[in-house]
Amino acid sequence: MGMPRGGFTKIIVSIPSSHRFLEETIVLRCRWLAVVPLLAFLVAGARGQAPVDLKWKFEKGKPFYQEMTTETTQKMKVMGQDITQNQKVTFFLSWNPVEQDKDGNWTVKQKIEGLKMEIEIGGNKIPFDSTKEAGGTNPLSDFFKALVGSEFTLTIDKNMKIAKIEGRDEFLKKLVKENPQMEPLLKTILSDEALKQMSDPAFSVVPDKSVKKGDSWTKTAQLNMGPIGTFDTNYKYTYEGPDESKLQKIKVDTTLKYNPSGPNGDGTLPFKIVKADLNSKESNGNILFDMTKGRVSSSDMTMHLTGTLTIEIGGMTSHVDLDQTQITKVKITDENPIAKK
Hints:
It is built from 6 helices and 12 strands.
């Protein structure tokens, strides 16, 4: 039997007022039952956004190890000729906290434990691996061997800045012994400040304040390579919260500007970089920070550099188009990775 047109409306209208009150109460209770879990979720989310302190922690006499691999692909066009160069370099470093003074400065010993390298230039490969007994025999083997075992003493202040580095003179003596003709260049590009800048990124990723998800902070660095020029780098770090392993994720966006030494270089190189227009693009990466251990756990970074160079060799200038991609991956462990090999 069908319901007459408008019958449903008539039934609703005919409900006694007491029934209507009961009905509305039930509806309101159902709505609140749906809202309460949502409120609980929001409160939990707000608690999860509490600021965190991403701070390095050193423990006297307890070393840690860093394995840093950099793969670089360089594509160049010189005088209409295409040239591709590839290289893969892995440094194995140890960091040993020695002591902390009354001002909070740490003395840390850094050592190059090992080195693996494969350079390809013009289709010719130059390999070297200090982790293997033979190591490798090529025109650069003695130079690579001189790097292994080199030690530095770093003073790291309470703000995780490298205030001082010792060991440069001994390091240069080892390198110059194998390549006397490179002494003027090595002394120029391996200054105390340059060595500090090379080590500083390992510690400068942490902010100088507590952060919560979405917060950003910036760092700038200038690497002066003497006659090669300077590299000005700006880093923007953004805290993205913990990952599934409860490691704290930090996103990194990088911009780099290269400035050549210009036509008035000091003459320690067989060429001069007269002019350059090189800039980074699409350069970013991620860092995972272990709050329990108080250090970076791992990181990956991609740097894409493009532009042009004008190089002078023997009074003649050449125009170079450059497209370079560099991928750097770092792992930090409690145990020496070379010992496992």
